[in-house]
Amino acid sequence: MDMERVNSMGFGEFVDVFGNIIEKCPLVAAAVWSQRPFSDSEDLENHFFAFIDALPRSGQEGILRCHPDLAGRDLHQGTLTAESQREQSQAGLTSLDADDQLRLQKLNALYRERFGFPFVLAARLSDRDTVLRELARRLHCQPELELHTALGEVKKIGHLRLADLLGADPARVE
Amino acid sequence: MDMERVNSMGFGEFVDVFGNIIEKCPLVAAAVWSQRPFSDSEDLENHFFAFIDALPRSGQEGILRCHPDLAGRDLHQGTLTAESQREQSQAGLTSLDADDQLRLQKLNALYRERFGFPFVLAARLSDRDTVLRELARRLHCQPELELHTALGEVKKIGHLRLADLLGADPARVE
């Protein structure tokens, strides 16, 4: 999909196509449409990220709270978004053994309790061992730093989802 | 549901319950959770509205763009949210005759073209004739005023949806 095509979209189509670049937050795509035309995929992406950066802290935490737990309730109930399902599957989180599953559940709960939002990580850039290690490590970070880290992961996820749609180079964030 | 119950919710449950107070924008509820505890339903509601008011203009337009057309594509495809389905049904928009249907479609398209967001109105406080009359009237308003009017309708819708959940008095906005 080239940018001429993207720039020709009405807001309805734009939100249909880009509404889940930020997980379960079509509001962000719907706001970004105001900024068209976009010069290239990086320009489009920067508008998504600028919107997130401009939100008050409650809104940034809100974006994180719209993400599912990794290998959590939505995965087991089959209610993940298509994008999340694919990403968690690629990281091997759909086929954990019982021990890893239990460990992840406990760490996710501790993390949510400490920070007030779920553990978010770009699963496609990761695997089972890295997810568990990163979760155990970030659980002990300071809240300010952790909010920053988690939003960085939201942006990595968004970059990869945009690259899927636009056929851009996904390597830049790895 | 009393406020003690609301204030005891984790963010997951809070977003499950209040995620569609603002149509298809669970981000708003997810952000409002940061502001707990809430003293009463009006306090809770005010946090939803304050979040909307604090958004940049693109974000406020984005909220409007997450709303469906009245008697539009989502109604005909059966993809409305449960709340919208009920509201549009109560206003008689699910049983329009062919002439009214066509007239509404044309006016909706003109409105979207002029303002860059769909025509939003608290359908439960309205009926078929009022919807058509208001749409024809607001189509000629100035964009700044119309954005303000449309966000006022978003708040009326949110007030009624909150009243449904909390059992509060819905009469205040009528």
List how many beta strands of chain A DSSP finds. 0
Write the H/E string of chain A, N to C.
Answer: HHHHHHHHHH
Q: Roughly what is the average pLDDT of chain A, rounded to an integer?
A: 93
Global geometry of chain A: globular
CATH superfamily of the largest domain in chain A: Oxo-4-hydroxy-4-carboxy-5-ureidoimidazoline decarboxylase
Largest chain-chain contact? A-B, 32 and 32 residues
- Count up the domains of chain A: 2
**Major sheet of chain A:** none
Unreliable runs of chain A = none
Descriptive key words:
homodimer; 174 residues; mainly alpha; UraD-like; globular
Secondary-structure blueprint:
The structure is a homodimer of 174-residue chains.
Chain A: H1 3-7, H2 11-18, H3 26-32, H4 41-54, H5 57-65, H6 73-77, H7 82-90, H8 98-115, H9 128-138, H10 143-166
Helix pairs in contact in A: 2-3, 3-4, 4-10, 8-9
What does this structure look like?
By secondary structure, chain A is mainly α. Chain A has 2 domains: 3-61, no CATH class; 68-173, Oxo-4-hydroxy-4-carboxy-5-ureidoimidazoline decarboxylase (UraD-like, Orthogonal Bundle). Chain A has helices spanning 3-7, 11-18, 26-32, 41-54, 57-65, 73-77, 82-90, 98-115, 128-138, 143-166. In chain A, helix 2 (11-18) packs across helix 3 (26-32), helix 3 (26-32) crosses helix 4 and helix 8 (98-115) runs parallel beside helix 9 (128-138). Chain A has 10 helices and no strands. The interface between A and B is medium-sized, with 32 and 32 residues.
